[in-house]
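Quiz preparation item.
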C-alpha cells in the first residue's frame, strides 16, 4: 500500500487514503482505515510539547484516529482475519479503552 507509505513519508490527507480504498477489497479498506488512524495518532504524538497550547486542535486528531482504527476493527476483514495487523488493531483499541465490537 504505497499510498499509506507516502502519507507517513510526505504528509497528506488520511481521509483521501480511506476514500480511495472504501470501495475496494475488504483488506484494502481495513488497511487504509488502520493506517489513517495511526497517522492521525502519530501527528498528536509529534506535537506533545505544544499539546497544551493547541489542545483542541490535536484532540480532533485523537477523535479521528479512534474513528478510523475502530472502523478497521469493525470491518469484515478486521473481524474475520487472523492477520497479525487485524490483531494489532484490536489490541490498539483495547489499550485505549475504545469499544469496537
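Solution:
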Amino acid at each position: 500500500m504505497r499510498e499509506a507509505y507516502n502519507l507517513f513519508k510526505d504528509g497528506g490527507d488520511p481521509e483521501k487514503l480511506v476514500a480511495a480504498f472504501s470501495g475496494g477489497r475488504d483488506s484494502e479498506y481495513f488497511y487504509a482505515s488502520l493506517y489513517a488512524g495511526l497517522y492521525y495518532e502519530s501527528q498528536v504524538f509529534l506535537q506533545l510539547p505544544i499539546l497544551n497550547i493547541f489542545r483542541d486542535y490535536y484532540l480532533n486528531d485523537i477523535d479521528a484516529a479512534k474513528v478510523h482504527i475502530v472502523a478497521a476493527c469493525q470491518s469484515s476483514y478486521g473481524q474475520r482475519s487472523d492477520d497479525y495487523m487485524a490483531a494489532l488493531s484490536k489490541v490498539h483499541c483495547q489499550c485505549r479503552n475504545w469499544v469496537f465490537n
